[in-house]
Structure formats: structure tokens, C-alpha cells
Amino acid sequence: MSQIQLAQPSAAAATEDVSAPVDLVALARWMDENGLESGPVHAVSRIGGGTQNILLRFRRGAREFIFRHPPAHPRPESNKTMIRESRVLAALASTGVPHPRLIATCTDETVLGAVFYLMEPVAGFNATVAMPGQAKESPELRHAMGFALIDGLVALANVDHEAVGLSDFGRLDGFLERQVGRWAAELESYHRYPEWSGRGELGDVHGIGAWLEQNRPVGMRPGIMHGDYHIGNVLYHADGSLAAIVDWEMATLGDPLMDLGRLLSTWPDGDGPPVLSMRVDPSTGFPTREALIARYAKKSARDLSNLPWFEILACYKLGILLEGTYARAQAGKADPATGARLHATAIALLERARQRITSNREKVQQ
């Protein structure tokens, strides 16, 4: 695309938008140094989402940008996470995986106080925010949207992580062996909040962990994992195809079947409470979990014989993670209403894990 030639202004001419949570003057100065358009940073708007990271859309010169930065009070690992996110986006540029295109990364923390990066905007909609036009009216289109989720997941799982320069992006040795212990320790760590009511309402969490340890698959076919793959972390084109997979902060190397397990863990199938839902409206028309699995089996060469293990692990892991918000909420460190909602979801997820264990045992005995 040709760019409009503008007179080169001072970086100090950047719009002083008092609502912007970052220094736009410093941002414009850095963009000047890296040849990223010219003129004022303007039309700044904040993009909402399920993360505390700062996500902005703005214009400069003839181009729009998406800006991603850690929260105002960064967590200890925030800068490392930003670098990893931008690295995986850069690696995916040569693949068929739909993703936001990386423009540039700033690792100099003196510019804005933390690592940040710029991406190309993606034209698309998030189904958990609003179903527009035909997507809201057509069950057939929503059916295609469900299959598009699987197609994106298969495309990611098929990427040769070594060929795209991500051979050191995660520790593959002992990956599956580490999972249960890691999340069991996370649950135990919530006792640091004396106000936490404990694991009583969660049921027999230890029993789920014991089953996972006893039935762990032998070996795996490694690949790139998104880490939190669900319908709220993708954007769709109007025709129901995937425009982009977003929110890569948990990406790593491991077994890509964990992403499929994560998707299935909250996919409604009639055997769980309403709290386990995709959080989309309307939700009719989407494929059943059985249809999603069949699609994955058709599109991928991966062995799905151990898929129940991965779904049960996903329920176990996600349930424990969500309970952490509840523990923080009871300690006055998170929103009480959000904590209560996620606590209910954690209970439902762990109950689903136990149901899946029972179903799996019955199948084995038949």
C-alpha cells in the first residue's frame, strides 16, 4: 500500500490524549527512530478484552496500529511475556496460521517503562463480544465458525516449530510429566491467602490428579501450543472463517492436543451445568463436541486415542487457575463478583473432569 507523504513533525507533536495509559510523545519518538510513519499519534482508543494488558488502536500517518503493553503495574514476568508473544507472532508470519501481523517490538524498557510491540489491525469480530449480522441470524454460519476453530488449531499444530525458529521456545523434556505437579502446587499456593475458604467446594481434586498421573500418555508429538485456545481468543471474518488467533501470552512448546482439550473443556454438550458455556449469543447451530473431534481427526494426522486425558487435564488446570481469582477475591485483591463467578466455573470444570473419568472407565471396561 502506498503511503501518504507528510511533513516530518517533531515527536512532541503527538496527540496528548489524557485518556491514553502510556506516553504518546515517547511512543511517537520511538516510532520516528524506527521509520514507522510520521505525524501525530491520534484516534487513540482502548481495546477491551479478558486481559489486564494495555491494548490500544491508533493512527499515525497513513496507517493504523495495534499497541500491546503490560498492565500499568507490570507483573514480574510481564516483559518476558511480551517478548515471547512478539516472538511467536514473528515466527508465524511464514505460516498459514491466521494471526495478527507483527510490525515491531521495543525491548528497551526506558522508552515506555516496559517492553511493548505493535501489530497490524485485524478486521473481524469476537463472537463473545457480539454476533453481528449474518452470524447472529444464521445457524449454518455459526456451524462453520465452530469448524473454523478446529481448522485454525490444526494449522497451528502442523507448524514445524524448528523450521520457524522456535526450537527453544519451551522445555519439551518431561512436558507431560510436569503437568499435574505444577497445577497441584498452584492450588496449594492459594493457602497464602488466609481468607480463602479452601478446596472443600471443589470436590476431590486430588483424585483427578491421581487419575491423570496413572493414565498419562507415553510420549507425545511436540508442537506450538497457544495455551488458552477458546472461541473468545479468535476473531472471525463475516463469512465465519478465522481472521486471527489472538492473545498469545501463554504460548509455548508442548503437546498441541492440550489446546484441543482446552477448547473441549468448556464446550457445551448437555451433560454439564449452564456455567460451562462458550459465552456466545446465540449459541445454537455450533457443532457438537463429537463433530469438533471428528473434524480434528479428519484434518490432522495426530493420534487422538488419548484425547480424554487431555480434556480432563484441561478441566483440572483451568479449574485450578480460576479458583486462584476466587482466592484473591476473598482476600480483597480481586473483584468479588468475578471471583464468585469463576469459583462456580471452577467447581463445574472439576466436576466435568470427574464425569469424563467415569465415562472413560466405563468405555475401557466395555
Give the SSE map.
Layout lengths: L23 H10 L8 E5 L7 E7 L2 E7 L8 H14 L10 E5 L2 H4 L3 E4 L13 H5 L1 H19 L17 H15 L15 H10 L8 E3 L8 E3 L5 E4 L6 E3 L2 H9 L23 H11 L7 H24 L5 H30 L1
Helix pairs in contact: 5-9, 6-7, 6-10, 7-10, 8-10, 10-11
InterPro entries: ACAD10_11_N (IPR041726), AGP_Transferase (IPR051678), Aminoglycoside_PTrfase (IPR002575), Kinase-like_dom_sf (IPR011009)
Protein name: Aminoglycoside phosphotransferase
Organism: Cupriavidus necator (strain ATCC 43291 / DSM 13513 / CCUG 52238 / LMG 8453 / N-1)
Describe what you observe in this structure.
The chain is of the alpha+beta class and 366 residues long. Helices cover 41% and strands 11% of the residues. It is built from eleven helices and nine strands. The protein has helices at residues 24-33, 78-91, 109-112, 133-137, 139-157, 175-189, 205-214, 257-265, 289-299, 307-330, 336-365, and strands at residues 42-46, 54-60, 63-69, 102-106, 116-119, 223-225, 234-236, 242-245, 252-254. It is globular, with a radius of gyration of 22 Å.
